[in-house]
Amino acid sequence: MQAPATNTIALRLALDDLYARYAACLDEERFEEWPDFFTDPCVYKIIPRINVERKLPLATWLCESRGYLRDRVQAIRKTSVYGPRYIRRFVSGIHIVGQRDEAIEVRANFAAYETQPDTFTRVFSVGQYRDLIAGTGSDMKFREKICVFDSELVPNSLIYPL
Amino acid sequence: MQAPATNTIALRLALDDLYARYAACLDEERFEEWPDFFTDPCVYKIIPRINVERKLPLATWLCESRGYLRDRVQAIRKTSVYGPRYIRRFVSGIHIVGQRDEAIEVRANFAAYETQPDTFTRVFSVGQYRDLIAGTGSDMKFREKICVFDSELVPNSLIYPL
Amino acid sequence: MQAPATNTIALRLALDDLYARYAACLDEERFEEWPDFFTDPCVYKIIPRINVERKLPLATWLCESRGYLRDRVQAIRKTSVYGPRYIRRFVSGIHIVGQRDEAIEVRANFAAYETQPDTFTRVFSVGQYRDLIAGTGSDMKFREKICVFDSELVPNSLIYPL
Questions:
Q1: Mutate to test the interface with B, among C88, C94, C99 (most CBs of B within 10 A)
Q2: Shortest Cα distance from B72 to chain C (angstroms)?
Q3: Residue ranges of chain B with per-residue pLDDT less than 50
Q4: A148 φ/ψ angles, rounded to the nearest 5 degrees
Q5: What's the CATH number where B56 sits?
Q6: pTM for this prediction
Q7: What is the extent of the structural domain holding B125?
Q8: Is A29 on the interface with C (CB under 8 A)?
Q9: pLDDT attached to residue A112
Q10: Which of A4-18, A139-153, B98-112, C104-118 comes out lowest in average pLDDT?
């Protein structure tokens, strides 16, 4: 086997680390740190797969700057009314599919599980991240993060980011 | 820590990449590309764990060549009758357990989720891949892929590969 | 990108391998090998997230030595009464969060699925591993393994380790 360049290996491991820290930030409900994973401006979108396949633009969430992401965090902390729940995120199959505008295009699968008090844990949403990542190493940030989810039904409200 | 040889690191990352591309190929329903992940001849088998443990040979699916795999794809595209659904696959715990016939033996866990229109996403099947992989780097191919699934019940028909 | 030292890459891949082998050991019900993943003494704890957040000490399981872990294995093999089931474990988002007492602090998410005869596979428990790992390479062992699970309800008894 031809050994890949060390910086390719470094890139792959930096990606693993980015997704692990991103999921842990949200799972541990450190929402105030969440906007720092993005460039400014950015695109953060949550959209059903059926809309992507039919090229329908309607998204469930759409944020186009860090300020907008911070606004979401304010909603979670101060203005939204919702029952307590834990969401836990799993990321699998991280792989690079191309390059665009001095950034790398990355795809990965996500699964989110919801636990409410006195209930069993259940599948909340599964789908694919379609991301554009700028920067290198520990300075990598999402320029675009498109969360394409498989089911139009989610078992409860979408309150926390994916 | 003793640093492993770079080509060992390369091997590990090539495996991660192989499984990520394999799952994405199926999740994105690019079934025509699926046979290219295998050598010819090959063994592709889906079998319940209870049969493996009791050494019973009966498998749910068994394909022994790329032609047979292509036949499966034809069935999906043209002859099978089934309702629409998305399947999404997660792979975890990829690890090398040995070498055999100039190929590496690899095991990993898989989880597949099914989403049908107007339903919640549900667990479709979980199990273990028991694979024999020939070749190196981006030329790695499955000489054997045995999908050992834990539940004899699946919530719907097995239409798409695992 | 600045290439990290090869031994950092080696450390990351050794961690991936440790968690993969740990999960496979338990999934394949090789329980007698399970205590060997720990130092002696050690801390192995399974505790609900709500107790961790409220700083309540009560744990569902607490083992403080390999002997105590072996005692658990004896219970599984000889004294507990329970119906047959398979548990399969997925680990995601392995990342290093610090160092303490010549060991590394690692966090990762786990998901466990349960399959009983003639039932569909279901989510058994999801949560976070909060681990302290001593040693290097293939000699790494858990000095502490805290399994913090999200739901106080589990769909059946907790018989097998997480």
A1: C88
A2: 25
A3: 1-3
A4: -100, 110
A5: 3.10.450.50
A6: 0.95
A7: 6-149
A8: no
A9: 97
A10: A4-18
A31, part of any domain: yes
From CA B6, how far away is CA A4, in angstroms rounded? 8
Percent with pLDDT over 90 in chain C: 84
First to last CA, chain C: 37
**For residue C8, how many other CB atoms are within 10 A of its CB?**
15
β-strands C122-134, C141-149 pairing: antiparallel
A23 — contact with chain C (CB < 8 Å)? yes
CA separation for the pair C141, C145 (Å, rounded): 10
> How much of chain A is in helix, strand and coil states, percent to nearest 5?
30, 40, 30
B147 in helix, strand or coil?
A: strand
Peptide bond preceding B41 in cis form (omega within 30 of 0): yes
Q: How far is B18 from chain A (nearest CA, A)?
A: 9
Residues in chain A with CB shorter than 8 Å from the CB of B120 are 122-123, 151, 153-155
Residue C15 pLDDT class (50, 70, 90 cuts): very high
Strand runs (DSSP E) across A18-140, as ranges? Answer: 38-48, 61-63, 86-100, 103-115, 122-134
- For residue B45, being part of any structural domain is answered with yes
Q: How many Cβ atoms sit within 10 Å of the Cβ of residue B20?
A: 20
Q: How far is CA A146 from CA A43, A94, B61, C97, in A?
A: 8, 14, 35, 27
Please give the tally of structural domains in chain A: 1
Q: Which residues in chain C have Cβ-Cβ distances shorter than 8 Å to B95?
A: 17, 20-21, 24
Confirm or reject contact between A151 and chain B (CB < 8 A): yes
pLDDT bin (cut points 50, 70, 90) of residue C137 is confident
Tell me whether residue A36 is in a domain: yes
Contact C150 A121 (CB under 8 A): yes
Q: Is A98 on the interface with B (CB under 8 A)?
A: no
Q: How much is the ipTM here?
A: 0.93
- Is residue A13 assigned to a domain? yes
